[in-house]
Write a structure and sequence with these properties.
The protein is built from eight helices and five strands; from the N terminus they run ββββαβααααααα. It is of the alpha+beta class. The chain folds into two domains: 106 residues, endopeptidase fold (from Nostoc punctiforme); 139 residues, no CATH class. The protein has a five-stranded antiparallel beta sheet with strand order 4-3-2-1-5. A hairpin with a 4-residue loop joins β2 and β3. The longest helix has 35 residues. The chain is elongated, with a radius of gyration of 23 Å. The relative contact order is 0.12.
Length: 254
């Protein structure tokens, strides 16, 4: 680590098993400037920008360096920007958290990859549920037709009907799996693009598997048809998600 580095350490939300990354700016003299809530048990109750020792910032955890997005300013400028705000009051985990502050010090833009991941997946769940609802008739007919054709040739199963009771929970479960995978990949230090791909792969697999299980009563043909329908729901929702994500990111960075 060096002066001007964006540093981060893993923390755990009070009273839960949810982990997140706490971010700050390394001043280079054994201290770190970081935004934090006054009470970590009440993150919505306000906070401030503080300068503390590196040991206090770490809290016994392993301190890592953040390199993405690439810094716009020199190390000296980054430190100066951070120091200029020591004592500034104000903190919000959604729009003004530690990562927003550290990223702003380095790039001039307020952004938080952790917030983006959560908001994107929430909007993605809504988009995919809408896609499931709108595509219900088409997917049900396609799945049933595929199963009937297989049944006629192999005498395995009859039909597969994927209605809202299957498609909506599947869309939500897929986004939940995607969120967990993307969050884990991000915390492991993988790039935003790699983390996103990990999330998409997990979501697709979960959606396909859930719908395949719904087609189990119709036999192997029904499971195949169900898996294809689940994949279609995920892919269809992805188109709507891209549009929603762009709006969410603009609002969170404004």
């Amino acid at each position: 680590m060096a002066s001007g580095d964006r540093v981060r350490v893993e923390r755990r939300l009070s009273g839960s098993k949810v982990v997140y990354m706490h971010h700050g700016i390394d001043v280079g003299d054994g201290t770190v400037v970081h935004a934090r809530p006054d009470d970590f048990r009440r993150p919505l109750a306000g906070g401030r920008v503080e300068r503390t020792s590196l040991a206090e910032f770490a809290g016994g955890g392993t301190v890592l360096v953040t390199t993405e997005p690439s810094p716009t300013y020199s190390p000296a400028e980054i430190v100066a920007r951070a120091l200029a705000h020591v004592g500034r009051e104000g903190y919000c985990p959604v729009v003004d958290n530690c990562e927003h502050f550290a990223t702003w010090c380095a790039t001039g833009e307020r952004s938080s990859r952790q917030v983006d991941i959560v908001l994107e997946r929430i909007s993605g769940a809504a988009a995919r549920v809408m896609a499931a609802v709108s595509a219900r008739g088409l997917l049900s007919t396609a799945a049933a037709g595929a199963a009937e054709r297989i049944a006629i040739r192999t005498a395995l199963g009859t039909t597969v009907r994927l209605g809202l009771r299957t498609l909506v929970p599947t869309a939500i479960a897929g986004e939940a799996a995607a969120l967990a995978a993307e969050w884990t990949a991000h915390h492991a230090g993988r790039s935003a693009a790699d983390s996103r791909r990990a999330g998409e792969a997990a979501g697709l697999a979960t959606s396909a598997a859930a719908c395949a299980l719904a087609g189990l009563p119709a036999g192997p043909g029904g499971m195949i048809a169900g898996a294809l329908a689940g994949a279609a729901v995920w892919a269809g929702g992805g188109l709507a998600t891209k549009a929603v994500t762009a709006v969410v990111q603009r609002q969170s960075r404004s």
